[in-house]
Specification:
Blueprint lengths: L1 H24 L4 E5 L4 E4 L4 E9 L5 E7 L14 E4 L4 E8 L8 E11 L5 E11 L4 E8 L3 E3 L4 E9 L9 E7 L5 E8 L8 E2 L5 E5 L5 E10 L5 E12 L6 E9 L4 E10 L5 E8 L7 E3 L4 E5 L2 E10 L8 E9 H23 L1 E10 L2 E10 L5 E11 L2 E4 L8 E4 L3 E11 L4 E10 L7 E3 L3 E5 L5 E5 L3 E3 L1
Parallel strand pairs: 2-8, 10-17
Antiparallel strand pairs: 1-3, 3-6, 4-5, 4-7, 7-8, 9-11, 11-14, 11-15, 12-13, 12-16, 16-17, 18-19, 19-24, 20-23, 21-24, 22-23, 25-26, 26-31, 27-30, 27-33, 28-31, 29-30, 32-35, 33-34
Length: 477
C-alpha cells in the first residue's frame, strides 16, 4: 500500500513538472522555414526564395528579416521590410538574393534571422545557395595587320575579345602560335587575360595586338586560342601570314647645300626615308678646322678616328610618308673668329719681333764686404746684329771705383755729383752677350741704401733704326 502511494506521488510530480516546463521548451519565438529548394545562381543574377514565419508568441508582432552582415547587400527585400503576424499566425516573406560580381563559385549557407522589430527577439534559419562564377570569353576577330611582312620586322596580329559572362576573367590566356608546313610551332606568344572586365571588349579603346617573330621566309598558318585554367582550348581562330625577304633600306640624301662666305659658311643636310619601315641614318661632317668655330641647329657627337675628328648626327626616320620621315641638320662655320685670332696673333708677333730687335740690359750687384761688385749684363736678342752699341752707366759721387774693370770703359766723364762710365761695344752679333763689371766702395758712411741709376744702351739695328733700352735701377744696400 505504501509502494502504490509512492508511485502515484512520483507520477503526479512528473505531470506537474511537464505541465510547468512546457513554456520552457517553447522559448523559440518564431518558427522559420525556407520553402524554396536550394538554387544555383550565376554571379550578378538573382535567386528568389520564400521564407515561412510562424509567430509562437501570444501577441501580434511586426517581424523583420535580418540577413548575415556579410551578405546584407545581396538581399533586395531586406531594407525596411516588415510583416505583421498575429499570435500563432503564419506569413510568407519573399526574398531576392543577388550575389556580387567577383564572388567565387561554391556552396553558401547564409544565416537569416527573423526578429521582432526594435527587439532582439529573433529566430534563425539558413538559406543554401549554389553560386556559379560564369565567364564566357569569345574571340570576335583575329587577323594579321599585313598579309605580307618582312622577316626582320616581325608580324603583328590584331585581335578583339569579348567577355559575355557576369564575372571578371581570372585564369584565361590567349595563345597565338604559328606553324610551318610540317606543323611545327615556329613562333608563339601568350597573353594573360586576367584584366578583362566583365561585359566589355578587350581592350576598351579598340583592337589589341600581338607580335610574332620569324627567322625564315615562307607562308605560315597561325592559330589563336583561348586557354582556360585546365589548359583546354575554349575557342580557336586561324589565319595566315607570309614572311618575305626584308626590303633593302633605301635612304637618300635629298640635299647637301653649302652657302659659302668670307665670315660665315653654312652647310645644310636633308635626309629622307624612302623605305616602308623605320630607319636610322648617320650624317657625318668632317672637322677641317677647330670644332669650336661651329654652331649647330642640333648638337652633334664629336668622333675622332685616327686623329681625324668628325661631327656625327643620328636621324631616326619614320616610315616614308609618315610624320618625321625626314630630318634636316645645319651647321655654320664662323670664320670671323679665325680672322680675329689671326689678327691678334699678327699683332702679337709684330710686337715680339719689335721687342726682339732691341738689346737687353740688366744691372745687378754683389756685396763683397766693404766692396760692392756692379754687374751689367748686355745681350742682343735679335736674330740680326746690332751696331754702334753704347752702354752708359752713372755712378753717384758717394761711391768710388776700386780695382780693375772686366772691360775698361771707353770714356769716364767726371761730373759735379757723379761719374759717367761709357762703353762703346761696337757690333754685337745675334744672341751675343757681354758682361761688364767693376767694384765700388762708399767714400763716406751712408745710412740706408744708395740708389744706382739705370743703365742705358743705345744701338742701331740692321734697318738703320736707333734703339734705346734702359735697365731697372737698383739700390745698393
Amino acid at each position: 500500500m505504501v509502494l502504490k502511494s509512492r508511485s502515484s506521488l512520483v507520477l503526479s510530480l512528473i505531470f506537474i513538472v511537464m505541465l510547468f516546463a512546457q513554456p520552457v521548451f517553447a522559448q523559440e519565438p518564431f518558427s522559420v522555414k525556407v520553402l524554396t529548394e536550394k538554387q544555383s545562381v550565376y554571379v550578378g543574377n538573382s535567386a528568389n526564395y520564400q521564407i515561412e514565419v510562424m509567430n509562437n508568441l501570444n501577441e501580434s508582432v511586426d517581424v523583420q528579416l535580418v540577413p548575415t552582415i556579410s551578405y546584407s547587400n545581396w538581399f533586395a527585400t531586406q531594407e525596411n521590410y516588415t510583416k505583421s503576424i498575429a499570435p500563432n499566425g503564419t506569413d510568407i516573406i519573399d526574398v531576392k538574393i543577388v550575389p556580387d560580381i567577383g564572388t567565387s563559385s561554391g556552396n553558401l549557407a547564409i544565416t537569416v534571422s527573423v526578429c521582432k522589430v526594435r527587439s532582439n527577439v529573433c529566430s534563425d534559419t539558413f538559406i543554401n545557395m549554389q553560386v556559379i562564377d560564369k565567364s564566357q570569353l569569345k574571340i570576335l576577330s583575329f587577323e594579321p595587320e599585313l598579309v605580307e611582312s618582312p622577316m626582320d620586322a616581325g608580324a603583328k596580329f590584331l585581335f578583339r575579345l569579348e567577355n559575355l559572362g557576369e564575372s571578371n576573367i581570372v585564369s584565361y590566356k590567349f595563345l597565338v602560335e604559328a606553324y610551318d608546313i610540317n606543323e611545327n610551332v615556329v613562333s608563339n606568344r601568350t597573353v594573360d587575360l586576367d584584366k578583362i572586365p566583365s561585359n566589355s571588349l578587350y581592350p576598351r579603346d579598340g583592337l589589341a595586338s600581338v607580335l610574332l617573330l620569324f627567322d625564315a621566309i615562307g607562308t605560315y598558318d597561325v592559330s589563336a586560342k583561348i586557354i582556360d585554367s585546365t589548359g583546354g582550348a575554349v575557342q580557336t581562330e586561324t589565319s595566315k601570314i607570309t614572311i618575305t625577304v626584308p626590303p633593302e633600306v633605301k635612304t637618300e640624301t635629298i640635299d647637301k647645300n653649302t652657302v659659302p662666305g668670307i665670315l660665315f659658311e653654312k652647310t645644310t643636310y636633308s635626309v629622307q626615308n624612302k623605305n616602308s619601315k623605320l630607319n636610322s641614318v648617320e650624317i657625318i661632317h668632317p672637322v677641317f678646322l677647330s670644332q669650336y668655330i661651329y654652331s649647330f641647329s642640333i648638337e652633334p657627337d664629336v668622333v675622332e678616328v685616327d686623329g681625324i675628328k668628325s661631327f656625327v648626327w643620328v636621324c631616326d626616320l619614320a616610315i616614308s610618308g609618315a610624320v618625321g620621315d625626314s630630318c634636316e641638320i645645319s651647321l655654320t662655320a664662323n670664320y670671323w673668329g679665325i680672322y680675329l685670332l689671326i689678327i691678334v696673333l699678327l699683332l702679337l708677333a709684330g710686337y715680339i719681333y719689335i721687342m726682339v730687335e732691341k738689346p737687353k740690359v740688366k744691372k745687378a750687384y754683389i756685396n763683397k764686404g766693404e766692396l760692392h761688385s756692379i754687374h751689367i749684363h748686355v745681350k742682343n736678342n735679335s736674330v740680326k746684329p746690332l751696331s754702334d752699341v753704347i752702354v752708359t752707366d752713372i755712378l753717384p759721387a758717394v761711391l768710388k771705383i776700386v780695382g780693375d774693370y772686366t772691360v775698361k770703359p771707353t770714356k769716364i766723364n767726371k761730373k759735379h755729383n757723379c761719374v759717367e762710365l761709357v762703353w762703346n761695344l761696337g757690333t754685337l752679333k745675334s744672341k751675343e752677350e757681354r758682361i761688364l763689371t767693376y767694384d765700388v766702395k762708399p767714400v763716406v758712411e751712408v745710412e740706408g741704401g744708395i740708389d744706382l741709376p739705370a743703365v742705358e744702351i743705345k744701338a742701331v739695328n740692321v734697318r738703320g733704326k736707333h734703339e734705346k733700352v734702359m735697365s731697372k735701377s737698383i739700390v745698393l744696400s
